[in-house]
Write a structure and sequence with these properties.
By secondary structure, the protein is an alpha+beta fold. It contains 6 helices and 9 strands. The strands form 3 sheets. The protein has a 4-stranded antiparallel sheet, with helices on both faces. Strands 7-9-8 form a 3-stranded antiparallel sheet. Strands 2-3 form a two-stranded antiparallel sheet.
Length: 174
């Protein structure tokens, strides 16, 4: 069974092992905790949880919830859902960033995980569209976004900027 669970202390050991091994930057997914020690992750997890409540945010940051994608009892992905946009996010990473472990790619988990993340985002995001960005050299991730109702809004030399309707506002669900 596949599910998304917010970062929490009960699952700290599995969360730690997953986060520690995610690369620092893969296709634009930034992991500031790559290679972190178990002791330091204990403090980092407190900050991750507080950030989801809008607490202890670095200047210029917005509240964001870190979700882990679980397949049965194993974490296979991570989704970061930003609760709202600021100017740098409007023209950058957007509301949702995600990472799927390489051994689970190409099996539909990205598409299913993004669908679950969109369900979470639609309960909290005030904007009428969910913003995402994908590097042009990552066609698989673009396909995941398009399968979830996305459309390419615009592009630059490196990225496509995708928009997905926020049914919280639109109410016209397919």
């Amino acid at each position: 069974m596949l599910c998304l669970k917010a970062a929490n202390r009960e699952d700290i050991e599995k969360e730690y092992l997953f986060v520690r091994d995610v690369p620092e930057d893969e296709n634009g997914f930034i992991n500031e905790y790559h290679g972190i020690s178990r002791e330091d992750f204990d403090d980092a997890l407190d900050i991750i949880i507080m950030n989801s409540r809008g607490l202890r945010l670095p200047e210029g940051y917005v509240p964001a919830t870190t979700y882990f994608l679980w397949k049965n009892d194993k974490i296979i992905g991570q989704f970061n859902v930003r609760h709202c946009l600021c100017e740098s996010l409007e023209n950058g990473a957007g509301h949702i960033g995600y990472y799927i472990s390489p051994e689970y790619r190409g099996m539909g988990y990205g598409t299913q995980g993004l669908q679950l993340a969109l369900e979470k985002a639609r309960k909290i995001v005030p904007e009428d569209e969910i913003y995402l960005r994908v590097h042009k050299d990552n066609p698989a991730s673009l396909k995941v976004m398009l399968h979830n109702g996305g459309r390419i809004h615009h592009e630059d030399d490196e990225s496509y900027f995708v928009r997905i309707p926020n049914w919280h506002f639109d109410k016209k669900q397919p």
